[in-house]
Amino acid sequence: MARMNHHERPSLKTCLAAIALATLLTTALGACATSAKAAQPAAVRAAATIPARDPAALDRERERAALEAISAKLKAGDTKGARDILAGLIEKNPGKAEYRIMLASILVSESDFDGARAAAREAARLDPAGTGPTYLLAEIEHFAGNMAGRKKALEELLAMAPTDPRALVAYGDALFEEKNDAGASMHYTKALETAPTHPAALVGMARVLYRAAKYEKADKFLTKAIESDPRSATAWSERSRTRYHLGLYKEAERDIDEAIALEPGVPWHHLDRGTLLLETREFDKALDSFSRAIELEPGYFLPYIYRAGIYEELNRDAEALADHEKAVTLNPEYWYSWESIGIAAFRTGDFARSRTGFEKVFEREPERFDYAVMAVIAAYRSGADAAARALAADLLPRIDREKHPTWWLLVRLLYDRNDQSSELELRLNAERKLDTKSEVLFCLAEYWLIRGKDEIAWAYLSLVRDMRREGTFTMRLAAGELERLGTRSVN
Asked: H/E element holding 4?
């Protein structure tokens, strides 16, 4: 199972919001501290020499305590509590843009994007020359999924500060997501001209190279990024990905473990670790990683897909079926899960559910007659003979007999149920496509099972097994049927 580039995944809102909060709040707190210190006269900065009863000193002490309380609330996940404390600070200091930035970052974490925008715009009004509020607006639009709004804000930011590495990198990221790699590379390069060790710019260049399959060059940029900022979980995660493609699996695992140590609550790090462990067939460890990803982001479908794949490898069909069912609930358009539902349900004997799975796939892939035939067979196996014949009748005129004679003959046999299979068997002997031959042999075996001729079915299933078409769904299903038939006497 190939590893998936997380830039091609849907955004994980809770994860992104948490990252935004950490980044923006750190910036805001730093700005508050710098601003407050700069505004103090020298005598006031020597706070230790000022009597505690001095009103200005008391106000500063209360403000510092309030900021520490906000930080503690946020670490505990209590964003409402943090927001309530911050409201008091804003009331006492209505002219501080930094507090509006902090409020916006908290509102982003709560997915209140309209509120976050309003707070950021107020920060921009209070600090019209500052770049922070405009950058924040761009990030809010990013997390809100408004890519056009994000680009507009970044263009305004670049007009204000054309050499600002942060703005150049952010605009490069926006272009990268649009698959404009040339434009993204140009902006990352400009950022590196101003700040040669800028970690995010180095990571950006590495992503462009990664997408171009230039893994060794990407690895070098990511190594520089890690040297520049060893606490960049993104750099560790991205280097893990490049080293996977270089075949350096142990090094890749060490890198993703570093990313997890830095950001244990980010689900896609665990997802990446799981897919890496699949390559080395460490299924138990991979299961733990996918389960952790699901625990952190239960609304994201991909970890269920991967975990189901391991359950299939381990012949834990009921668990695989449950995960595929969850995946299609979260993302009904991911039709591969419907295929897996068809297979897993068939193996567990839930033929009605199997029929639904195969029908869904055929809806998406109307040239895949193997899925349609499996739906007919599953209907027969579920005892719904009338429905099965109706499916076969509907399917026959949809198959071009000249182009697909083997499939047409098979469906005709399933419709007629007259046991006249000689013409099909002659045609099958001439079939050159081995996967098609394997699939039709399996379907013939199922036909004879439906007819109660287990001995004939066994012979066909054995032929499927001996063809060793690894990776085909009929190979897995045939193995299960042979195992089941082997537990009872064959007629």
From this structure: none
